[in-house]
Amino acid sequence: MIGTGDAGRPPTSGDDVISRAQAGSPEAFTQIYQELAGPVAAYVRSKGVPDPADVTSEVFLAVFTGIQRFSGTEVQLRSWVFTIAHRRVIDTWRRQGRGAGLSPYEPEEDTRTTPSAEDGALGNLGEERVHALLATLTDEQREVMTLRIVADLTVEQVAEVVGRRTGAVKALQRRALASLRRALEAEGVPL
Amino acid sequence: MSPRNDDRGVSRADLDRLLRGEPVPEEPALTAFVLALKATASTPPPPPSAALEQVLRAGLPVRLGEHVPMGEHVPMGEHVPMGEHVPMGEHVPMGEHVPLSERLTVATRTRARRAVQAAAGIGLAAKITLGAGVAMASVTGAATIDAVPDAIQAPARSAVSGVVELVTGTPLDPLPGDAEDASTPGTGGTGGTDQSTPAPTSGSDNGRATRSQETTAPEHDEPTQDQTTERGTQGGNAPAAPPGATTSEEAKAGEGQPATRGRSEEAKPPQAKDPGKPAAPGGPAPGTPATPGKPAPGTPATPGKPAPGTPATPGKPAPGTPATPGKPAPGTPATPDKPAPGTPATPSKPASPGTAGPSNGTDGPAEQGASQGKGPGNRP
Question: Check: CATH 3.20.20.10 for A1-101?
Fold first, then answer.
């Protein structure tokens, strides 16, 4: 995996992927895309972008056309890709003239059936429900949680992407987890 | 809600484990949420767009000026013109070659577009200044460049002369039209001041001829009598200055007519003194310095009507031709009735104005010059 935030996880591809991509190698582009397209698309979807597929493609086109100016390691490449995705999402919302389309989650308005205790096992939370829970967070908290969990970035990398200090990122993620726990308890999700 | 309440029950260690996706038994709900959120990243990515698919399949189009490493595959026909921006989502079709001329045209167009955008972006005062500067440069260039036709150069030169004189008080070179008007004998004495300075004496053609002849003159080290005579008869150039003689002295002496260009200060006093004194038919008294209003004796005839005794043939000075400036005509004009033997005025090389050669004093052109009574630098 390219540039994962976990220090103990050895990267599976070397720096030659970056150098080959900088040389314009289609194979290197494909490798980067296959490894990072899923997290980037998940990040874009979590931001409530209307057409996440197009935005994801735009992100990678920007990455590939600008990769010659990039200098760094694989970990930095991952952070750089999500920085581009972060800015692209912001540009998308600016073009549409409004903010993120996520609305706060209202448990009373949720007409979905409550899963049974058997179905409420771990990991059975669907993506829509996850996004609904994310909507209960503030924009900053949601951004930090998504980058930490979906993009698998470290606190320092997240701070670099969102342009905040690491202390602020840590505080945001703590509050986000506390808020999520309250929302989950109020929802009564069987665990 | 205070941060203290937010942090309730979530230790730092559990928080790190949760965010890494590790199960935390004390926080089952949060663990489920984090796992579900992390699972969204494992879903298959959406299909790439056409542009991205093209990049993934064939790489990026190679831009001009970029270094292509050895051994790298460059897709055939993928050329992007220099300076041309390829928008996101677009690609250059395969096999489409852009010729060099089109690329240059595109580059020129791009530069022009940028220039227009830059000009449009400046303020109103800057635009006015820019426009005035361009107009001034155009008029000045039209006035000074010889390649410009006279029909354009004359008004431009007039405008520049007016502005220069207004600003500096120093008149500019005479207008070609003025010089053309003053091309009659006895009026157009221009030479003598500076041979390197173009002296528009009798129209543009004559002036150019004079300049071209001037350039050939310095081949000789010492101006001989022939040469001085030649100069004196060509284009109104004053004879070669003797040692110690300045050009202004030449002009004041009346030898070869005002040894200045145009409306120089040296040329004005004679005009002011004798503004309307016509040269009587028959010519002034011999030895009278040739003023603009009083052509010197022996003022050459017009090209079509060479005066007898006009020293027209180069190399054969007419007797009495004041060869050395600084020597005012000492009352010794060439004998009118003694023209230079065998020296008829060649029509192809007419005696130019300012010739201080002797004349019989009966020529019409002298009268004409007297009637005009103006130097070459007169304004319209």
Answer: no
